[in-house]
Amino acid sequence: MFERVVAFGPGRVNVIGEHTDYNDGLSLPFAIEQGVRVSAARESGGEIVACALDRGEQDRFALADPPRGAGGWRAFVRGMVVELRAAGHPVPAARLEISADLPAGVGLSSSAALEVALGLALSALAGVPAPDRMALARLCSRVEREWVGAQTGLLDQLASLFGQAEAALRIDFRSLAIEPVPFQLGGWRLVTVDSCEPHELSSSGYNERRAECERARVLLGLDSLRDAAPRDAARLPAPLDRRVRHVLEENDRVEQAVAALSAGDYVQLGCLIDASHASLRDLYECSTEAVEDTRARLQRAGVAGARMVGGGFGGQLLALLAPGAAAPPGALAVCPAAGGRLLETCRR
Ligand code: GLA
After folding, report:
1. Rounded Cα–Cα distance for residues 89 and 65 (Å)
2. Nearest CA to 100 among 4, 164, 8?
3. For 42-69, what is each residue's pLDDT tens digit?
4. Residue 115: pLDDT above 90?
């Protein structure tokens, strides 16, 4: 039994394969070095006291019945406590201290990073094995849907939990097979750049896009859009035809990106990143003026490829830089890193 534990959940970057996860498609994300740390210490009494150190904010609630209706980071903490207990995992009274070296609300999955760190910390503190990583990913995703109101897929949680150093993950969301794809870029680099437009999934067009895909699926009479063919898209009314085309072509780009990485063809990888952005902008319609301005600036600076990452509607862009190219101002270098883990465990 531990008195105190510290767990870490990394954020993620998605090389390519956006808005495919909830359509049983393909993606190629990796966990990054930056993320969220949760330090959890046992407390007497029946409460959780949670402190967001970087914000100077606190939440305190009864373990037995966390009230609903909290917004922001509090919803994740309360949701994780309830969902862990509902899945049969004991959660002890605890004081939680949360800190991050990952900006929140910019599309690098600070949400999944927080959920993963909480899940690992609370299970370790309870002295029980954490749920297996696939089950934990699903549990975290339930928190997003039912406590935060974002109808997300499993991309962020799987990347945060299964991340590996020096590898991106080819994830097939139909079979949930996860294959590491060696990711050593030689002298090339990936960076993220902020569009300075805040991005929040629950209040953006994200849920609407997901609902459009669902409508398209029902109209086509398919189990999932993974089974759609290009000619199916043409049978649908606008804008559903464009949404389906994006999903199909994006799945295909993931396979091409895996091949480009395996062949060390980074010029081709840059072209695929650009094509993904164009599709997200024109077919999926989840870009914004601030994202387009940022991308135009990156292109003028000569990057080898640039696109929005994550759900879109603001947030960060991912840019591929050729050897020797200068990093744009404010850029954050990202490279594949290990998935969520315990950093410290301390017995009395
Ligand atoms: C967000 C969601 C993911 C995924 C991406 C888009 O990051 O949390 O589930 O849908 O958007 O690819």
Report:
1. 15
2. 8
3. 999 999 999 999 999 999 999 999 999 8
4. yes
Closest C-alpha residue for ligand 1 atom 11: 311
Q: Is the CB of 246 under 6 A from ligand 1?
A: no
Question: What average pLDDT does range 258-285 have in this prediction?
Answer: 97
Residue 66 host element (H or E): none
Q: Which of the four pLDDT bands, split at 50, 70 and 90, describes residue 232? A: very high
Q: Which amino acid is at 47?
A: E
- Tell me the whole-structure pTM to 2 decimals: 0.97
Q: Ligand 1 pocket test: which of 19, 20, 318 has the largest number of ligand atoms within 8 Å of its C-beta?
A: 19
Distance (Å, whole) CA 346 – CA 179: 34
Q: How far apart are CA 140 and CA 92, in angstroms?
A: 19
Q: Closest ligand 1 atom to the C-alpha of 150?
A: 8
CB neighbours of residue 339 within 10 Å: 23
The letter for the amino acid at 197 is: E
